Amino acid sequence: MRPELLYPLFQPVDSLKGVGSRVAPLVHKLAGPKVVDVLWHLPTGVIDRRYRPTVAEAIPGKVATLVLTVDEHRAPPPGSRAPYRVAASDATGTLTLVYFRAGRDYMMKLLPPGEQRAVSGRIEVFNDLPQMAHPDHVVPLSELASIQTIEPVYPMTQGLAPRVLRKIVLAALAAGLKVAQGAPEWLDPTLVARRGWPTWGDALRAAHEPADDDAVSPLSPARQRLAYDELLATQLALSIARAKMRARPGRPREGDGAMRAAALAGLPFALTRAQSTALDEIAADMARPSRMLRLLQGDVGSGKTVVAWLAMLIALETGAQAALMAPTEILARQHMETLTPLAEAIGVRIALLTGRDKGKPREETLAALEAGTIRVIVGTHALFQDDVRFRDLGLVVIDEQHRFGVDQRLGLSSKGPDADVLVMTATPIPRTLTLTHYGDMDISRLDEKPPGRQPIETVVLPTQRLPDVIAAIQRAIAAGNKVYWVCPLVAESETDDVAAAEGRYEDLRQILGGRVGLVHGRMKAAEKDAVMERFAGEGVDVLVATTVIEVGVNVPAATVMVIEHAERFGLAQLHQLRGRIGRGSAKSTCLLLYQGPLGEIARDRLQVIRTTEDGFVIAEEDLRLRGAGEVLGTRQSGLPNFRLADLAAHADLLDTASADARLILERDPDLTTPRGQALRVLLYLFERDAAVRTVRSG
Ligand code: ADP
Ligand code: MG
Questions:
Q1: What region, left, alpha or beta, does residue 61 occupy, with left being phi > 0 and alpha being psi -120 to 50 degrees?
Q2: What burial letters (b/e) apply to 375-399, b meaning 16+ CB within 10 Å?
Q3: To test ligand 1's pocket by mutation, which of 306, 576, 578, 588 has the most ligand atoms within 8 angstroms of CB?
Q4: Measured from the CA of 399, which atom of ligand 1 is nearest?
Q5: Are both 67 and 180 inside the same structural domain?
Q6: Confidence band (pLDDT; 50, 70, 90) for 310?
Q7: What whole-number distance in Å separates Cα of residue 425 and Cα of residue 402?
Q8: Is the N or the C terminus of the chain less surrounded, counting Cβ atoms within 10 Å?
Q9: Which residue's CA is the closest to the ligand 1 atom numbered 12?
């Protein structure tokens, strides 16, 4: 149960003063549904209103606060689009206040002729005369103090005036400060002292009442402190979940190596150093009595599948079964195709189970699985339906894990209560993100490609060169190569994107003749599969696709990829797409077509993708260029974004938080010491209730 102390922060926003039924949905949309969400809505900049010149001194372009006497109203003639002007002056000169679409009654009340008003806004010059359009503040002199000299600027949403939002934030801040008075310090006092961080309450105040520009920087002590709170809560929650997973009885699995030896002898190649190391790490984990929870991270084409297969054989050597789960039907089938000959070579019975299996065949598979005669099952999430039962599931391998939610990953163990878990990801996640998303999960990295691969030549071209590109692919096809042609998916309208892809498909068919195929997200799975099959085999030389072409789809004869509007793709996405070529021994080319003019970030991105194929380098650059939230594609991953931490700026804090979390759990696994109790409050504050429950029950 959430501590009572925190209740005020978890009230709905409309419990705050100033939030009525009109404003509540806007605040909800902007920050979130609860008071604490408003508290976490931090300013991104400040407006400095300390500049107090006379009219004669006022420098154009600067924000200034002036005291003026209202002289004369000049309303536009009815029906005119001219602005409403008010002349106001001090002893040194006249300044015109300009309002577009203003009513006379309102203006008279705001700026009564003959009276003095303090106005604050940006000084402009029009026809050599100073003016101010739509001052941010107009108040009687008695309220001059209400104009903040340093005014925080918040991310806004349409329909919510800055002044209204500010009032609401101040109400949330007041609630936060009250909670802070009663809250224990959850951070290590030595760390706080060494870093010179404020208390939580002071940090909240400093964040929402910044003293200057520096105070809104992510590197200010207050912002660092708040970010650290969030990071520590996250890391602690992940470590707790992990400790729980580990605490469940596992089983030591140490095969005799016979199946692995037979499998290795049958492979036409030797393992790379990276593959051998990863396999050793996996074998050591499986031999331990606790459960394995390991991430196998490797670029597209780095050879994860072989490693996973050999890991599955360890389970089989001990008499257990193994499962391989893929995020899509296509990938599951492709894994099945890859593994079937390997399994047959050593006499292992393998089967496929997806959502498409129905009726008698499905029942037979389920029966054989329960009897244990099927040793390896490959499938989609259909594997986790209730009626799927194993005789003894020893290892679960999950491919392309970022497509599955974290909860699914943690909940998956039900099929084999003591099964080891190996997660494969083709997204080379930067190290910092691995930490935040997987906690201190063990990691094996395949940072080396199998030998014999030719580097992919990547060329960046403006769209105007399209005719040259078409000529180039005509040559490629004539030489027996296959071509991917990727049309971008722009989120606004899937219909338009599909239309664009269809249009391109028609163009290319006219130019190249019949051997062009099309796949997009609106097609049925069976239709897509059919086209893919013809592309992998005979019949289709050029595959026009939206970004639905699945990660990992393997067509070694494809040596050319054209990506239209490459400037619209993220780095990770470009890298994933490009990974579909360069899979055979022939030289491959990637043509990135862009529509200029390019922004700075787009230019940087294309430069990075042109110069390196190293997924880990690309991922780090992606993080640098875009910020953490988008690297994984949060929409896809279902992972939460940070509210206070900015991983580009706070990466070092993440390391500290991770180490801190581990140490805390070593010393105080049940969080019962006074600091442990304080940390429980922190976990609740960041809505990690499940983690606290886990500690309790464990
Ligand atoms: P990933 O799943 O990491 O994208 P795969 O496991 O599909 O990569 O491997 C890509 C290709 O490389 C496959 O055709 C596979 O047989 C081959 N391969 C894997 N390991 C090696 C190796 N050590 N030497 C040569 N080829 C390899
Ligand atoms: Mg693969």
A1: left
A2: bbbbbbbbbbeeebebeebbbbbbb
A3: 306
A4: 2
A5: no
A6: very high
A7: 7
A8: N
A9: 303
Retrieve residue 437's tokens.
Answer: 């998303």
What percent of the chain is predicted at pLDDT more than 90? Answer: 59
Amino acid in position 672: T
The residue whose CA has the least distance to atom 15 of ligand 1 is 303
Query: Rounded to two decimals, what is the model's pTM?
Result: 0.65
pLDDT tens column, 631-670: 444 333 334 468 898 877 887 898 899 899 999 999 999 9
- At 178-194, the pLDDT tens digits run 999 999 999 999 999 99
DSSP string spanning 120-183? Answer: EEE-EEETTEEEEES-SEEE-GGGGGGS-SEEEE----TT--HHHHHHHHHHHHHHHHHHHHHP
**Which residues neighbour 626 within 8 Å (Cβ) at sequence distance 6 or greater?**
570, 571, 601
- Closest by alpha carbon to 549, among 526, 576, 587, 514? 576
Tell me the two tokens of residue 692: 């606290």
| Co-location of 34 and 56 in the same domain | no
Q: What is the mean pLDDT of residues 570-588?
A: 84
Q: What is the CATH number of the domain that holds 98?
A: 2.40.50.140
* Rama region for 173: left / alpha / beta (φ>0; ψ in -120 to 50; rest): alpha
Q: Does residue 551 lie within any of the structural domains? A: yes
pLDDT value of residue 487: 87
